[in-house]
């Protein structure tokens, strides 16, 4: 028979200690967050090791690293703590108008630059004391499978390294709650007065020097796949690590770049960048906000998830139907 553990003899605060040490990867920093001494944290880790029958964290010159068993336990422990926090939070209902919580949202920079302005406007009106942290998310380098390209983001969500991820993927594991925010496609961006804008044909497109956004410096992207299907190729003269850098680079050169339409529509004017429609079909994709289903029991997180969707829906409506300007007579 399965031996039942006597929880009355188990200090559940040890699970909180596990979570913080796993997050910080350093005993001293974990002690600061927990308002404990480093020796108290070390003593707690000793009790936790005996309880779970594993070293859990191994010392290194720069801190500690989790064992394979600790990594395996991270998701179920995070789920247990999320449920406990949810139960406790019901004693004091979440009030966005007075809450001073901080949430972390992860997304590629070309995506966060789209959803942040309307979200910040909504927070300013309804939750002025709530703070946000934004993490840069990137697909796994060299991963071509949509199901696996964002697996690191899902793993970070499960260990509560962030609260919500916004990713360009429809392949969301069933243990996550998701909501579509908006659809995106690509346009060709360039400096004002660029000669390509006069005659944007596929042949002229391939004659141009191109910029590609790539953190790893890999010049081959989805545009090259689309070109190859039609028997074309291009020269990628420059790669940069993010989309804002891309706008700055093409603003002062003859480089052109395929960039997300909404991102460019919001930010291109600051750089003097203009766009034309792509001369060949390019992929469209849907941006989804994602959070663990178990974490959605947190009333504050559920509220933020809803506000993110509401703010982006309002922005999308304005994007589709911009207000008419009254002509100056």
Automatic annotation (TrEMBL):
Q: Where is the signal peptide?
A: none
Q: Which InterPro entries match?
A: LysR-type_TF (IPR050389), LysR_HTH_N (IPR000847), LysR_subst-bd (IPR005119), WH-like_DNA-bd_sf (IPR036388), WH_DNA-bd_sf (IPR036390), YidZ_PBP2 (IPR037402)
Keyword vocabulary terms for this entry: Activator, DNA-binding, Nodulation, Transcription, Transcription regulation
Q: Which residues form the HTH lysR-type domain?
A: 10-67
Biological source species: Rhizobium mongolense USDA 1844
Pfam families cross-referenced by the UniProt entry: HTH_1 (PF00126), LysR_substrate (PF03466)
Concerning CDD domains, the annotation shows:
PBP2_Nitroaromatics_like (cd08417)
- PROSITE patterns referenced in this protein's UniProt entry, alphabetically: HTH_LYSR
Is DNA-binding tagged as a keyword? yes
Q: Which protein family is it in? A: Belongs to the LysR transcriptional regulatory family.
The molecular function GO annotations come to: DNA binding; DNA-binding transcription factor activity
Q: What is the designated name of this protein? A: DNA-binding transcriptional LysR family regulator
């Amino acid at each position: 028979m399965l031996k039942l553990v006597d929880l009355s003899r188990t200090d559940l605060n040890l699970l909180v200690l596990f979570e913080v040490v796993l997050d910080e990867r350093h005993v001293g920093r974990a002690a600061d967050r927990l308002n404990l001494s480093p020796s108290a944290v070390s003593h707690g880790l000793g009790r936790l090791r005996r309880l779970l029958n594993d070293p859990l964290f191994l010392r290194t010159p720069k801190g500690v690293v989790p064992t394979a068993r600790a990594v395996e336990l991270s998701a179920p422990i995070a789920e247990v703590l999320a449920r406990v926090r949810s139960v406790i939070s019901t004693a004091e209902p979440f009030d966005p108008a007075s809450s001073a919580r901080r949430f972390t949202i992860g997304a590629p920079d070309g995506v966060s630059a789209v959803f942040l302005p309307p979200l910040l406007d909504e927070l300013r009106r309804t939750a002025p004391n709530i703070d946000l942290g934004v993490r840069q998310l990137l697909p796994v380098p060299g991963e071509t499978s949509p199901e696996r390209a964002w697996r690191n983001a899902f793993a970070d969500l499960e260990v509560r390294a962030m609260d919500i991820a916004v990713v360009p993927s429809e392949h969301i594991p069933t243990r996550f709650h998701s909501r579509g925010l908006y659809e995106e496609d690509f346009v060709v961006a360039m400096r004002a007065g660029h000669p390509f804008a006069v005659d944007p044909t596929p042949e002229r497109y391939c004659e141009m020097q191109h910029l590609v956004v790539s953190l790893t410096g890999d010049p081959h992207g989805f545009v090259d796949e689309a070109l190859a299907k039609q028997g074309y190729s291009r020269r990628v003269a420059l790669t940069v690590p993010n989309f804002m850098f891309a706008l700055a680079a093409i603003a002062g050169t003859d480089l052109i770049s395929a960039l997300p339409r909404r991102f460019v529509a919001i930010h291109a004017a600051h750089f003097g960048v203009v766009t034309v429609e792509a001369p060949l079909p390019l992929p469209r994709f849907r941006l989804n906000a994602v959070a663990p289903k178990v974490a959605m029991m947190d009333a504050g997180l559920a509220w933020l998830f809803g506000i993110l969707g509401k703010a982006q829906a309002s922005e999308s409506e304005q994007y589709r139907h911009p207000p008419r300007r009254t002509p100056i007579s």
